[in-house]
Amino acid sequence: MNATPDDAVDASGIDISHHAAIRAATRLGVVKAREHIRRLLDRAEPVDVPWVKNAKAYRAGDVTLVVDPDGEVVETVLQREVEA
Hints:
Layout (H helix, E strand, L loop, with lengths): L14 E2 L1 H11 L4 H11 L1 E3 L8 E5 L2 E5 L5 E7 L5
Parallel strand pairs: 1-5
Antiparallel strand pairs: 2-3, 3-4, 4-5
Helix pairs in contact: 1-2
């Protein structure tokens, strides 16, 4: 299951899992990870990502946010590596 263009996420009301907060802090280098994830969600677009199963994916820049199927919890944060 992936997010469709009609799927919207309420960034202010969504829970951020501990795992997602730790990933954002370590991978993105942010201190206030939960707030940063919510800001990313505000501008994220739904995407179809083949490796995301039983969840919805949203992308903001090079960051993919994986949200549970009900749109209630950000489960993890993935960052695309840029080739040098």
